[in-house]
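We close this part of the discussion by returning to an individual protein. The sequence in question and its structure tokens are set out directly beneath this paragraph:
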Amino acid sequence: MSLRIDNVTKKFGDHIAVDNLQLEIPEKGLFGFLGGNGAGKTTTFRMILGLLDPTSGEITWNGQKIDYGKSHLIGYLPEERGLYPKLKVKDQLVYLGRLRGMRKSDIEAEMEYWLDRFEIPHYANKKVEELSKGNQQKIQFISAVIHRPSLLILDEPFSGLDPINVEMLKEAVIDLADDGTTIVFSSHQMEHVEEMCENICILRAGKTVVKGNLAKIKQSFGKKNLNIYGDMPFDSLKTMPGVLRYQEVVGGCKLQIENESVSQEILKSLSGKGFLRRFELEEPTLNDIFIEKVGERYE
């Protein structure tokens, strides 16, 4: 089931939150949705879910509009906490699973699986408000996937998690995608999008500035990163033709260069000047592309 967003615009009064967005999100796999604060990501998610109506344009999933009749096929993890703080975790998940049309026995089986997987089975009878923010995020994630949705939308899913729990959640997301779930997610940690997503879209002020296959976007970007380490001075590289950015680091330097051929000129210029320990040419990072296209760091 592919998700199509056809020329969608959303206005709030005179403010255009999403401006003529055109996207096709492939069936299955992970799709990364990026943009700074106010770029239109959450508004787009809410339109996909039918919580907001587009001002113009159309959103379809497998050729049909998304309505409440398809809610059992869709999971949503909002950026804001949406759990009932006074309810016990078990009661919360049973209630939300029942809203999705699940039988209690199936809910309890899924709940046991996920609580064990996230190493928190002992929290089943605790109130949500008694949990840390990270563990509340785990419960909120479970509530979004307990019915095994075909389409899963995750808005900042790694928010509030320490590095160990981020890895735990990432593995769960990747496993769901491998099992055939179509997953669309945004994240402020761009390295996660880069690691997990084959296709991306970057929004700025509601407009698409980059979209498509991430590997192809990197290849077409042209600029490359060059990491050099060794026992020699590197200051002369700052002013070399084709060097766009120079950063001194312990034992070496990191450069952004115009293209691959510049790296060969740099290598020639360093010949015979000292011991060269590492000379690594890399594709641009997603953060490099974001800065170039949006004009700001995504932090």
